[in-house]
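Thread: quick sanity check before group meeting

JM: Hey all, I'm pulling together slides for Thursday and realized we never actually wrote out the predicted structure for the chain we discussed last week. Dropping the sequence here so it's in one place. If anyone has concerns about the input, flag it before I start.
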Amino acid sequence: MPAGFSNPVLYHDVDENNAVSGTDVPYASGSITSQQAIDGARKFVLQVTADNTLVDDTPYQIVVTLTSKSTVGGTWATLGGIAPLYEHRQFVYTFTYTVKKPVLTWSVAQTNPNPAIPGQTGGGWVITYANSGKADVVGESHIKITLPAGLQFGGAISGTHGETAIYTPLASQPYGGSVAVTIPATALTTGSGPFSFTIPFMIEQTTNEGTGPASGATITTAVGDFVAKYSGDVYTAAAPTPMGLGGFAVAASKGVKWINAVVTQTADMDETIEAVLQIRNMGNTSATFNLAQAIGGGTLNIPHIFAMASQGTEITATSPSIDPGETQFIYVRVKTPVDFAAGQSILRALTVTSNAATLNNAVGLTSGDYTQTITTNFGASALNVTLSSSNDNPVPGDDVEFTLTLSNSLAAIATNVVIALPINSFMTFNAAAYGGQPFNVDGSNNDGLGAVSYAGSTVSTTPAFFVPAAVAGVPGKRTIKYTCKVN
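JM (edit): ok, ran it. Output follows.
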């Protein structure tokens, strides 16, 4: 037999239906001896296994040789030591088998901006497939794409011939995974195609604090990232073209945004009040930024001061730098006039802009990300602060717990509450007094949650600390507990 054929079995076609069926009698392959009487014609059926290496629309020849012997009474017949006439006879049959099978051909092309910035849409793999064989595909076929590191799926499949996609993990996941595309048999009948569908993708924008791969990185695909199979067959790989095994570059993106909610605060007359805002660089490369302000409403027009530290030097012409994914605090302070009164307010519109070209801003930012408002309304001071201790007459070795209580009787949140509490030199601060944590804030053991800290022998709050507004006449309240040991 030619290569590609195996497992030959010769059957007696008992029911003479020209096919192997349940009543047919199999013989062993190779040399076959039958001592059954053959009176008249007997039909045989040859069954072989053809593998997938056989070439479509190509004839193959299989030769079957039958050798017969005459017998009498079950023994080979002789007459006076002379073999009977026609004792041996051979019959040679040549079968011509023409292969007719489906042949799935497919290729991968890539359409995407190159280089591209994280989150930029417009990229995709275009899969083109066809059945160039002489038989229909039986059942579904599948094409599987595995995402290389740095990419994420960017939308739904665009096929128009019944193609469906299953994403692993789900397409809602941020990045990585694979997609298995099912092509129905109706799209792979004999001579069908070529047809195409697109799997959109883009550079992921989740890692590195939401900025994606660094500028200048290269994302590379491999042959094994693209594979296809008939139903039941193993996957076979195809090199993506024209990209081949190369990659494409990650471009630089920049985009500085505010990450605070709108700020509303209260202040008394002739009071300096400071709001703490935050900005973040959502791009994958360092950027410089500029801050600007304008009157946004209110009854008074009073410029504010931008600084990089609490009560710090005003930011003027110098454009600070901010790293990819970095968050920086911006301290914005204003001093109210001596005649600040009820019904008056100061409203400033703040903007932050990076040194990115318009088309190179980080993807996902909108105009609202660049603007922020801060409103200062008149409100007489109504914050009450008390400090109590668990032991007013301690002796060396005693632990003393201090409780700082802050209450706000106004109907507005008291923001930017900064308090400093020096620790006496005869005491040692216990940095693990509350379940291994230095503070108990509002009944919860923690490290201060970024709003309470201990440094330089001082317990202090940062401008991020606030006291909630009064509700139905009941003052808003917060507590801070810390413990010291008497030396």
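AS: nice. The chain has a mean pLDDT of 83. Helices lie at 207-210.
JM: adding both to the slides.
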